Amino acid sequence: MTFEQRISAFNELGQFFNFIINNYSTQDKELAEKFEDWKDDAAYAISDAEAYNNWFTKENIILALKNWSEALTTENLHAWTKKYPYAKAPKNVGIIMAGNLPLVGFHDLLSVVISGNNALIKTSSKDDKLIQLVIKFLYSVNEEFKTIIQTVERLEDFEAVIATGSNNTARYFEQYFGKVPHIIRKNRTSVAVLDGLETEEDLKKLGDDLFIYYGLGCRNVTKLYVKDEAQLPNVFEAIFPWGEMVINHPKYANNYDYNRAIYLLGKDEFLDNNFVLLKKDSSLHSPIAVVNYETYTDINEVKHYLAEHNDQIQCVVGNEMKDNPNHVEFGQTQFPKLTDYADNIDTLKFLAEL
To answer: What's the CATH class of domain 3-186?
Structure first.
């Protein structure tokens, strides 16, 4: 299969996503009929994904599909891949996918296939339904994908590996896959540094960074740095519109109740607005329904600390943090571009060097 055929296939997938979420009608009559034929399959996959993993609400699945529909244009795919060579001899690349967000492993699948390689995929049980829909749709575009993309129970005959997991599983991945070229991803999170000059709109957008996907992604902000605790009421007020949505989710509510009870029993100090807890804590990572915070006096000390802990951080939000290589504008952490790589490791560069 040629490079252009692969580009065209993923562009068609993006159009299909657009059809799912917007009932978009393409002018291509044959394609329009195909999308209609696949409509029930997509609806079933979305419903099945939500039933199997309650964190995957329909709203969050639709958001993920929307993001990908906008990314998978021919123009975007060409711009993204133009500085990398297409594989002359395809390699079998194993992919161990995460499952914390809808289609979170799709970027790895896209990267492997668009670079001219073959994907051996071990899906996560938490996000199997949507990935399977994607794969079956690609098979319908071009039957050659049946030999290029395969799902497996156990990785074998691989020449490289991209594996996403936790800090604990990374140790096993290193041991098992250490003899072949690999990308092994660990736990990461995101932070926001507030200088007190943020607008109300900035803080409202911060709510998106905190609560989209219920805070389950590595691009979700779990730690705030503030100059003064007097800033926190403004944060609470700005993020208030998120309250009803998150606290009415049973799993989120259970985490909120559990963490609140633990902190009360431990006599820990925290701030509470009935849907999220703000806890003074030095840790970058926080539990679900909790956001850690610290105060600072010198912004350079914060910058130095974040630089030292860069291997734990995916995104850094803040008006004073534009010089950080991981800087993202308020409200944009959950809308990555094709060039925004997990763990900030350029996947296409890795694949080009195999």
So the answer is: alpha beta
